[in-house]
Amino acid sequence: MPSRIHLSKVTAELIESFHACVKEVAMERTYLSIVEPPSLDVLRLAINQNVVDALPLVVGVEDSKVIGWCSIVRDRREGFAHTGVLGIGIAKAYRERGLGRHLLEETLAKASHVGIVRVELEVFASNKRAIRFYVREKFEMEGRKRQARYLDGQFDDIVCMARHIKPSDMARSACGIQETNTASVPGLEYSAAPLKAAIRKLDR
Fold first, then answer.
1. Cβ count near 130 (within 10 Å)
2. Phi, psi at 114, each rounded to 5°
3. 85-95 as b/e, with b when 16 or more CB fall inside 10 Å?
4. Any domain includes 204
5. CA atoms within 13 A on the CB side of 47
6. Do the domain assignments include residue 129?
7. Residue 76 belongs to domain spanning
8. Rounded CA gap, 80 and 118, in Å?
9. Which residue in 9, 105, 114, 126 has a CA-CA distance of 20 to 30 Å to 72?
10. How many domains, in total, are found in the chain?
11. pLDDT tens, position by position, 107-166
């Protein structure tokens, strides 16, 4: 990652720049499940909710400009709070420079500290570069939604992927998670929960 780029939490000063970055990626109409960003007010509310819940939300910043983001939104339903849904996006000019990997690593580390042990994502099948990236980062394919999107005259499948991570000792104690194989945790068969925050299913 270039030395001028650093990772940061979303501060009040960065919210508008974050919104602009989401808008840029969404308007490509290729990588995200949204084709326009949520309003600035809705995005601000979603960010504040993440802060309240101590959930991971990390942005890449260059010269006070947000150029990418990664978030994990916890599933709030009883029995599924150990699960989070990944969203990640990188501005076009900054792709293929290692930023996505750094954002993901930092966000997964934060997720482990709040007791998330399963991270899910959905990615369009046409986004082969992103799928290769997720496979390299130890996400496994769990299913496929055939012709899930119809946009600009084209169908696209959605690939469902997930990765299990080990919670930190502090999070394990706070959440009552026993030292065990994550496959034995109740609810791990659940797949592809929808993002319930303002930014949903941000693939890459």
1. 20
2. -115, 15
3. bbbbbbbeebb
4. no
5. 21
6. yes
7. 5-184
8. 10
9. 126
10. 1
11. 999 999 988 999 999 999 999 999 999 999 999 999 999 999 999 999 999 999 999 998
